[in-house]
Design a protein that fits this description.
By secondary structure, the chain is mainly α. It has one domain. Helix content is 74%, strand content 0%. It contains five helices and no strands. 13% of the residues are buried.
């Protein structure tokens, strides 16, 4: 059984992905909490993969640009503190129905 505090905190994550109005319609229970966990795992995996992608140079990069990009990639990999918007949107689109069904106990 989830406590009220746990439900509120999980609701914050649901709001992050779907916005305030949509999250109010989703009941937090054990099944929906598991779906939220899976959503976060997928979003983090996506973001970790994007951390490995060099940013476009707009020109033929020289060695100094390449080294700077590698340093930035290393910083992104080690910081591991963000979910990219593209990953958030992809996860929200892919998981909304599953979350709503879990919230209804289905």
């Amino acid at each position: 059984m989830l406590t009220d505090t746990e439900k509120r905190e999980i609701q914050k994550i649901i709001t992050f992905f779907f916005g305030e109005s949509a999250s109010k319609r989703i009941e937090v229970n054990q099944a929906s909490a598991k779906v939220v966990w899976d959503m976060l795992q997928e979003a983090q995996k996506c973001s970790n993969n994007l951390d490995l992608v060099p940013r476009p140079a707009g020109f033929m990069p020289g060695i100094s640009y390449i080294v700077k990009e590698l340093v930035k990639i290393a910083a992104r990999i080690t910081s591991n503190d963000q979910i990219y918007l593209v990953c958030k949107n992809q996860v929200a689109g892919s998981w909304r129905t599953k979350l709503e069904l879990a919230a209804m106990g289905l």
